Amino acid sequence: MKNLLLTIAMLLCSITVFSQWTISTDGRVDYEFNSEVEDFVRVEDSYQNVVTFFEINDDQTYMKHTTPTAVSIYMLNIAKVSKEDEPAAIHYNAISDNGYEYYILLNLGHDEIKFLYDWEDDVIMTVFFIKNRWHQK
């Protein structure tokens, strides 16, 4: 019995506890950059009513994005924090677990997460609409 209690205590002590931010989204829209109007233009029929989850560690160096069909991992580097926005907008340079580079804007003031990336000869922006967010310790 003592060995069992000691083993359980050792297992509990060895579990790494970390805190994270979790963000749920309830929709997304895709845009393409149009060089003629020098702005992003919505891709027709690109709206998807889909629930996804983003998990960001407290150090903001790692993000996991879970969708109904896939899980993607991103390594993050903070590029800029816009303090004029309340709450602040955080800009990241990111690399996915597939090696693709992204510019990510987490804009809590506008309840959206924007992903900008090059796809073939186009610049694409995917906007996720934040439904809820919470902090876990």
Mean pLDDT: 86
Low-confidence stretches: 4-17
Strand fraction band? over 45%
Order of helices and strands: HEEEEEEEEE
Head-to-tail CA distance between termini: 32 Å
What about the largest sheet? 8 strands, antiparallel, barrel
The value of Rg in angstroms is 19 Å
Helix content: under 10%
Q: Give a count of the beta strands, DSSP E runs of length 2 or more.
A: 9
3D shape: globular
Which structural class fits the helix and strand makeup?
mainly beta
Number of helices: 1
Question: In which order are the strands of the major sheet placed?
Answer: 1-3-4-5-6-7-8-9
Question: How would you summarize what this structure contains?
Answer:
The chain is mostly beta strands.
What does this structure look like?
This protein has about 140 residues and is mainly beta. It is about 10% helix and about 60% strand. It is built from one helix and nine strands, in the order αβββββββββ. It has one helix spanning about 1-15; strands at about 20-35, 40, 50-55, 60-65, 70-80, 90-95, 100-105, 110-120, 120-135. Strands 1-3-4-5-6-7-8-9 form an eight-stranded antiparallel barrel. Residues about 5-15 have low confidence and may be disordered.
Descriptors:
single chain; 137 residues; mainly beta; eight-stranded antiparallel barrel; 9% helix
Write the layout of secondary structure elements.
Layout: H1 2-14, E1 20-34, E2 39-42, E3 52-57, E4 62-66, E5 71-82, E6 89-96, E7 101-107, E8 112-119, E9 122-136
